[in-house]
Write a structure and sequence with these properties.
Length: 359
């Protein structure tokens, strides 16, 4: 059995975020022990892990990944068998308005974490050190923009265009360097856009679902023809645990949904699902709410990901189609009004003071 499947806990950074909480929910369902390290920025929400306070396998540590001393203590006390690194500033628009936090968390935080992971790994007995893994989660945005044809492979040169993408590219390089310089057993994944339950409503899909439910305009950048690949967050969590267990050390794996869509088609798909699940008064079609807004500066035109390596080597492929995943996601937001109303009102941030480390 692989070391990361051993009895020891996994340390997950960013486990209160959108993708991190999907990973944590999955690990807890499987009976794994999790040390969830999260600074609870605006994007962190423990309510995305419904049993976070009652599950004895979930230990929450209110810690910033830039705080090396706090990380060192967590590693010394909990002796994790692996690390899944998802903590990041993740929203491109915010990185355009203010790149500072992106450099701090994604670059400085990753370097601080890597150093503490190395210290921990070097302290492990040889057999455990050999089975230890550091899984770094990154994005396809590091590869820049594509024309009408082609897709990103693991060999595509890095050409990040936004401050977010540049900070993630830097973090990928740091992870690579800690492997080549110190031998740290790392694996990196680069994934396309995620969607699904518990996504913070600043990103395109939840924003449009919630605006649609409230009869508000559905903003679409530019001409709406920008293309992204979309992956259901639970498929992503599944890919990450597959790579953690069986990925080759020092390798990178692209993860995608085989779902290239123009933004406008995504928004129209949301409108169709909303018309079916939550029709507007008088049967007004949700598509009538679509509003084109000024394009994001430097908006990459097209991303497409070649995910054949992870399929070939590790046998992973996404389970959701975009049509079924989108319908399911729209239904989830309709049925989980209290989750997103507390996000929208800011109430989810109310009970966080003095959390410290909570078992
Ligand atoms: P998110 O913004 O929803 O969550 C990020 C989490 O990290 C939050 O819980 C936040 O509180 C925490 N965090 C932020 N700064 C921190 C710090 N300094 N110390 C500790 N915790 C901190 O992000 P997400 O969408 O879940 O993305 C997770 C990872 O996956 C990121 O690394 C992102 O770059 C990558 N990724 C995201 C997507 C996507 O579509 N969302 C696609 C590919 C890759």
């Amino acid at each position: 059995m692989h070391g990361v499947n051993d009895a020891g806990p996994l340390l997950v950074t960013g486990g209160a975020g959108f993708i991190g909480s999907a990973v944590v929910r999955r690990l807890l369902r499987e009976g794994r022990r999790v040390v969830n390290v999260d600074a609870l920025t605006y994007a962190g929400n423990l309510e995305s892990i419904p049993n976070w306070a009652s599950d004895p396998n979930h230990l929450f540590a209110h810690v910033d990944i830039c705080d090396g001393a706090a990380l060192r203590e967590l590693f010394a006390v909990h002796r994790p068998v692996g690390v899944i690194h998802l903590a990041a500033e993740s929203h491109v628009d915010r990185s355009i308005d203010g790149p500072g936090p992106f450099v701090r968390t994604n670059v400085e935080g990753t370097a601080t974490l890597l150093d503490e992971v190395r210290r921990h790994w070097q302290s492990l007995p040889a057999a455990r050190a050999e089975r230890f893994r550091f899984l770094h989660i990154s994005t396809d945005e590091v590869f820049g923009s594509l024309g009408a044809e082609g897709s990103f492979t693991e060999e595509t040169p890095y050409r990040p265009n936004s401050p977010y993408a540049a900070s993630k590219a830097a973090s990928d390089h740091l992870v690579r360097a800690w492997h080549h310089t110190y031998g740290l057993p790392v694996v990196t994944t680069n994934c396309s856009n995620n969607y699904g339950p518990y996504q913070f409503p600043e990103k395109l899909i939840p924003l449009c679902i919630l605006n649609g439910l409230e009869g508000k305009p559905l903003p679409v950048y530019g001409d709406g023809r920008n293309v992204r690949d979309w992956l259901h967050v639970e498929d992503h969590a599944d890919a990450l645990l597959t790579v953690l267990a069986r990925g080759r050390v020092g390798e990178t794996y692209n993860v995608g949904g085989h779902n290239e869509q123009e933004n406008l088609a995504v928004v129209r798909g949301i409108c169709d699902a909303l018309d079916a699940v939550a029709p507007l008064p008088g049967g007004v079609p949700h598509a009538s709410l679509i509003t084109f807004v000024k394009d994001r500066p430097g908006h990459d035109r097209r991303y497409a990901i070649d995910a054949s390596k992870i399929q070939r080597e590790l046998g992973w492929a996404p389970a959701h189609t975009f049509a079924s995943g989108l319908r399911e996601t729209v239904t989830w937001y309709v049925q989980h009004r209290s989750w997103w109303e507390r996000v929208r009102s800011g109430a989810y941030r109310g009970e966080r003071l003095g959390l410290g480390v909570v078992a």
